[in-house]
Amino acid sequence: HSxxxxxxxxxxxxxxxxxxxxDNSLRIWDLQSGRCLQQVDEKLRGVRSVVLTPDGRLAVYxxxxxxxxxxxxxxxxxxxxxxxxxxxLQAVDVTPDGRLLISxxxxxxxxxxxxxxxxHLHSPVGHTAHVNAVCIAADGALALSAGDDRTVRVWETAxxxxxxxxxxxxxxxxxxxxxxxxxxxxxxxxxxKLWLWEPESGR
Length: 203
Prior knowledge:
Order of helices and strands: EEEEEEEEEEEEEEEEEEE
Strand content: over 45%
Shape: globular
Number of strands: 19
Low-confidence stretches: none
Strand order of the largest sheet: 1-2-3-4
Largest sheet: 4 strands, antiparallel
Mean pLDDT: 92
């Protein structure tokens, strides 16, 4: 990359990685040799997020103007584009079975997609400002998102309903993750604090 790198993702077998950066490119890496296998250059600015599906079959990344692009690994061959209402996508994640994808971006937009059919399923409503991060629990039933509205929200992926709005931070929340058993979530942001949550109970 010739400029800042925003995000990286490693395949489940540990052989490949994908990265996206401010040079508007996505790169596929061989981790054993450190060699760049493929480079995909974007004409549009704002490539900020990438995730590899658990089976290592696809690299999925968010693009400017609200589209999600899917590439077949490791050749980086385009296989599909998901069109959504968000102007800018900041974050993407996929369920462990690779069936569903969640994205978050500008204006508080969260979207849930069917990866195989490339169909938009839900646009959950809740955030009132930019969504900075999304993550999906290991069982795929719950997803979390973190936003500039100072909240972390817990979503049911099957229907797109908001189960809980986790509040407490006094500043924008920039990242969120969840433990493998799905019982604990961790968020952090501009206030400099780490917040522990119970996604199922909303505490």
